[in-house]
Amino acid sequence: MNKESNQPLPRTTRRDFVKATGIAAAGAAFAPRIAGAFAGGSDEIKIGLVGCGGKGNSDIRQALSTNGKVKLWALGDAFEDKVNNTHKAFAENDKFKESTDCKERLFSGFDAFKQVVDSGVDVVFLVTTPGFRPMHFEYAISQGKNVFMQKPCAVDGAGVRKLLAANEDAKKKGVKVGVGLQRRHDPRYIETVKKIQDGAIGDVVSMRAYWDGQTPWVRPRQDGQTEMEYQMRNWYYFNWLCGDHICEQHIHNIDVCNWIMGDYPGLAQGKGGCEVRKGPDYGETFDHHVVEFVYGKKWDTAGVRMHSSCRHIPGCWGDVSEQVHGTNGSCHVGSGRLYDRKGNEVWRSEAGGDSEQLHKQEYLDAIRNNTPFNEGDNGGMASMTAIFGRMTTYSGKLLKWDDCLNTKVDVFPYSPDFKWDWAGEAPVKPGADGLYALPVPGVTKVV
């Protein structure tokens, strides 16, 4: 275990943390602009992409569609075929080919992230599988690069600690850090959350958050694949790569609840398991998690409860939303609707816009104009909240935030001695029956 990852992180002031970082992110677009502040007066921003999957391609399409000159300068991925496919997709697209100049800077392998960062880019988009995020972020910041990274930002407490430490360096250097929690840039969410925080439904007494849907995809094992390649290709079902779907998807809803509270939970307990998603291609993750988060330090006091549910089981009720209950009414946050205590609609937001596109525009504008923009702390804390929830469902225990953030049980192999090689050993291995060991509540240790 990396000794650095064992260092405990001093606890941040609870009440102001998430609210402050959310306001900073949402307000970046409205900060005063400083003409000619970008890179020696140049208007063109050179972008490098690390992680050439579907989300990486989507992020770059949005970045190249912003106002202002943007150039796709370098591509990197562990898999060469993904790099080549992404290059072809942009170089042969009539809309993007004039903004694509990366033919000489296509990198593959486990060290591709370093090659992209060192290729002369102004911004690096980190969109690999989440387990690698702290390592990649740490290196990019050490080289003074602006970073936009997708969520989650880590898969365990050690990764969150590494990321938050690197973000302190980012703040000192003044580089811009964006995190793909786009609801914080959605005009409807911004307007609705402000109404709640201003008391439109009274004091918040409870919240509900859902990402109950279907299994996204499965990539069965192919002939000739090593165990490392198989897990990397089928990354969604391995905890060391994905963090489980409570982290990879449900983080969005969890982050909204943190934003509303201007806080993060101090206690949690949960239940989960793998009821129907069985077999070797489904790895070591659960297909459902239900968590009770408490925004407060004591379990038996009137702290605000947030009831969190995420599920990947076909044929079941589905919902992706955040709902808030107050002393004077309730709110369906995503639809921007407030209700009185009798259930009558009393307000509806008319705001709208493509939150992901707005997010990229605000982020790149902040680089051009040298205005404040750093979402790294909130990205780390939101990731930790989702990890916190997973730790309760895997263990079946009532857990404290501090214990989970400072856990010595690592999920990702941070040791510098770990061999990153396609022929090397993967961090987890299947049993003789081809199945991977699942967490066992009541038995599995997480702290």
What is this entry, summarized?
This protein is of the alpha/beta class and 447 residues long. It has 14 helices and 15 strands.
Question: What would your notes on this structure say?
Answer:
By secondary structure, the protein is an alpha/beta fold. It has two domains: 3-184 and 356-375, Rossmann fold (3-Layer(aba) Sandwich); 186-353 and 385-405, Dihydrodipicolinate Reductase, domain 2, CATH 3.30.360.10. Helices cover 33% and strands 19% of the residues. The chain is built from 14 helices and 15 strands. It has helices spanning 14-27, 54-64, 80-91, 112-117, 133-142, 157-173, 187-197, 227-233, 239-242, 245-248, 251-261, 355-369, 376-395, 401-405, and strands spanning 45-50, 70-77, 106-108, 123-126, 146-149, 177-179, 204-213, 267-273, 288-295, 304-312, 319-326, 329-332, 337-339, 345-348, 399-400. Strands 14-13-12-11-7-10-9-8-15 form a nine-stranded mixed β-sheet. Strand 12 and strand 13 form a beta hairpin. The longest helix has 20 residues, at 376-395. The two termini are 14 Å apart. The model is unreliable at 1-37 (pLDDT under 50).
